Amino acid sequence: MKKYNGFYLMGNYPDKDTFIKTAVKGLEHFDFLEVGIPFSDPNADGDVISDAAQTLLDRNCTFSDISESIKTIRKSIPVEKDIYIMTYANIIYNMEIPAFNTFCKENGVKGLILPDVPFCEKEFFAPLGLDPQIKLINFMTPESTTESIDVAAEASENFIYFVSMRGITGTDFNLDKETMEKIDYAKSRSKVPVVTGFGIKSKDSAAKAMEHSDGFIIGTALIEALNTGGYEKYAEFVDGLF
């Protein structure tokens, strides 16, 4: 399976221009970008990402604002680089879906990553009228059974997001034996890349994830780099991952 590495940035954080610059820089190395849309109750996110989201909410930043940045990013990156929207279900439920469909198709947004929508609840999104080309990314976790992995792997498109640990983003990376075995099993059953996320903060932890996965996702550590050293520290950190 071809590698498929991704990174997460909160849309328009810390400001629009820096977000665009960091996104384009990251896509020099990564295969896909997850653009976070701020939500008031981000139950899968640790303090770093939650604080970034709150900063944007305090500024009244909207999806419309972030979508303009995504348009600029798309024009600045190779066509083979992928973009996903990562947010929570309530944000999507309250969107004007026809306009959202058009935006995604025109700007190469391949899918949605919704951490509060498990595979078994994806059917509830059908009545919304999302374009079938906008894929809902399936999650697997250390609690996934072999039976649920079989079903989700068969239905998955684009990639599978394997959550490496119980808890929220930003915690320390640790793959126990059972989780490694489940990632290996998911890879054996899946026709799309199995990508591991949550807790990856360094080149070493990324390499450890890649021992069992088709790719890794990193986010919190990138925002921490931005917070402490701005674009320069972020760029140095990203280059050092590869």
Description:
- The chain has 242 residues and is an alpha/beta fold.
- It has one domain: Aldolase class I (TIM Barrel).
- It contains nine helices and nine strands.
- The chain has a nine-stranded parallel β-sheet.
- Strand 6 (138-140), helix 6 and strand 7 form a beta-alpha-beta unit.
- Helix 1 (16-26) packs across helix 3 (63-76) and helix 1 (16-26) packs across helix 9.
- It is globular.
What descriptors fit this protein?
242 residues; alpha/beta; TIM Barrel; nine-stranded parallel sheet; globular
> For the largest beta sheet, what order do the strands appear in spatially?
5-4-3-2-1-9-8-7-6
Give the overall shape.
globular
Biggest sheet architecture: 9 strands, parallel
SSE-based structural type: alpha/beta
The overall strand count is 9
Distance between the termini: 19 Å
CATH third-level topology? TIM Barrel
Q: Report the CATH superfamily.
A: Aldolase class I
Percent strand: 15-25%
Radius of gyration: 17 Å
Helix content, binned percent: 40-55%
- The helix count comes to 9
Task: List unreliable stretches of 5+ residues.
Answer: none
Give the rounded overall mean pLDDT: 91
CATH architecture classification: Alpha-Beta Barrel
In the CATH hierarchy, what is the class?
A: Alpha Beta
Domains (count): 1
* Element pattern in H and E: EHEHHEHHEEEHEHEHEH
